Amino acid sequence: MTAIAPRRAGPDRGSVLPLGIGLAACCVLAGVVSVDVGAAFLQRQQLLALADAAALAGAQAIDLDAYYAQGASAATALDPSAVPVLVRRHLRAARAAEAAPGLVVEQLASDRDDVRVVLSAPLRLPVWPGLAQSVLGERVVVESRAQLAYRAG
User: Fold this and answer.
1) Domain annotation covers residue 6
2) How many CB atoms lie within 10 A of CB 56?
3) 7, 60, 65, 78: which is deepest, by most CB within 10 A?
4) Does the predicted model carry a pTM greater than 0.90?
5) Which residues 6+ apart lie within 8 Å of 48 measured at CB?
């Protein structure tokens, strides 16, 4: 019986190391992107919650003179001069500037029964801030609406 001689290593020797380094780099990059995209999502959700609450605060600015004169009815409308006051008061009370540094009220509009609030803030990414400017944009912009609705009951 003859023993089988082991095969000699050929030109493939050591080719697993570059593959392992490439795989590790891909995993690190995927982790960085995942963390930053998750942070951007959470920042957008926080800003949207602020905008929703501000719009609801503005939608409570009813025209009190008409309300006291006619009572609650389908004719009850918002007071356009009181809406911005209530929205900004709510943002101050909620400490929105601390929660979202660089917060800007881009637009604040109201008509007879509708309030529209548009807020923006700089995007802050924890791991790769350059990703914000190149892929996700420099600012997070959200819009929220609230409506004054009367239902006879």
Assistant:
1) no
2) 18
3) 78
4) no
5) 142, 144
